[in-house]
Amino acid sequence: MAPTPADGGAPDVEALFERYQERHRRSVCLRLVGIFDSSAVSERVHKEVVRRGGELDGPNRPDPFLWLRQVTGEVLARLHRERFGPAARGDISLYGGALPEATSISLAAHLLGKASGEDDRAAARAEQKLLLQEALNAMDPLDREVLTLRHCEQLSNDETATVLGIPKAQASDSYIRALKRVTRILAALPGFKAKG
Questions:
Q1: Residue 73: inside a domain
Q2: For the chain, how long is the longest CA-to-CA vector?
Q3: What mean pLDDT do residues 82-98 have?
Q4: Which of 104, 127, 143, 160 could form a disulfide with 178 if both were Cys (CB 3.0 to 4.6 A apart)?
């Protein structure tokens, strides 16, 4: 049996991917926005994790999921630079070590939920999405990022504070403020019905 953090060893890379597969997939899909193939990204992340697995050894080892998330962010940033050149930094988060910033497009799509697929509602949904994107773009960037991490990636408040390098109280305050604002925005959208 492979050593685990509980018995003083580094986690097995395959077990790490297995354990955090769904959380990792959410993080990657939310921030790819159709630019990169998610399976190719996962393959590159897997190779990087295998190469750097020793970073999880020792007394000061990081939280395994947050470490996997950071490695994923570094791989995505590298792919972004390869595709768009070294000067293209617009989509990379300002928060050190984080994944590329979720755009208002991907965040709006997540908040609105899955489309019903009915043609007669497509125009209304497109209008809702555009209005929500505009409102999200007007939000404080930190609040928007906290909302993304907490609501979309489902990180805990402690994990969010760690990722962003801010106090836990600030992460909590930002999330509450963002949630209140998004709730008001969604309630004001024409034809929007909250999920029951």
A1: yes
A2: 58
A3: 53
A4: 143
